[in-house]
Amino acid sequence: MPLVSRKGILAIAAVIDVAIHANGRPVSAKSLAARHKLPPRHLEPVLQALVRDGILKGVRGPHGGYELGRERKRITAEDILRAAGSAEDASEPPLPASTLVNDVVRPALVEAERTFSAALGRINVEDIAKQAEGLK
């Protein structure tokens, strides 16, 4: 069972891609999608969620695209996943409101999520981008 959703992985990859390919100019959604072998329409909701949270900045115009919204070392994997979560599909039914769910299952998972979130908060775009740049 993956702990990070498909959209979360895509969001992290998109931010890292922008971090290593921007070189002083915006990265187009089209080039991002091509590098990740995706139709641009799959990437656009994730990119917009990242812009809404200030992780990416959208640049309009014929040479527009996306650039980082703040320094690489100030963007964590946790920030990116939180933003990607706002792009998740809202079509899932709500959880049941049983005593077992509310008093046992949720508290256990909240603690696990807190631990996972703390670990994600220690991973920043700067570190991942350096690793990715070493692969070139």
Task: Give the arrangement of secondary structure elements.
Blueprint: H1 6-21, H2 29-35, H3 40-52, E1 56-59, E2 65-68, H4 77-85, H5 99-121, H6 125-133
Antiparallel strand pairs: 1-2
Helix pairs in contact: 1-3, 1-4, 1-6, 2-3, 3-4
Q: Can you walk me through this structure?
A:
The protein has 136 residues and is mainly α. It has helices spanning 6-21, 29-35, 40-52, 77-85, 99-121, 125-133, and strands at residues 56-59, 65-68. It has a single domain, classed as Winged helix-like DNA-binding domain superfamily/Winged helix DNA-binding domain (Arc Repressor Mutant, subunit A, Orthogonal Bundle). The two termini are 31 Å apart.
Summed up:
The chain is mostly helical and 136 residues long. Helix content is 57%, strand content 6%.
Task: Based on the model shown, name its key terms.
136 residues, mainly alpha, two-stranded antiparallel ribbon
Q: Could you give the count of β-strands?
A: 2
Helix-strand pattern, N to C? Answer: HHHEEHHH
Rg, nearest Å = 17 Å
Shape: elongated
**Helical content (DSSP H or I, runs of 4+):** 55-70%
CATH homology-level superfamily:
Winged helix-like DNA-binding domain superfamily/Winged helix DNA-binding domain
Outline the biggest β-sheet: 2 strands, antiparallel
CATH class: Mainly Alpha
Tell me, rounded to a whole number, the average pLDDT: 86
CATH topology: Arc Repressor Mutant, subunit A
Q: What is the CA–CA distance across the termini?
A: 31 Å
- Tally of separate domains: 1
* Total number of helices: 6
User: Going across the major beta sheet, what is the strand order?
Assistant: 1-2
The class by helix and strand makeup works out as mainly alpha
Q: What would CATH call the architecture?
A: Orthogonal Bundle
Strand % is 5-15%
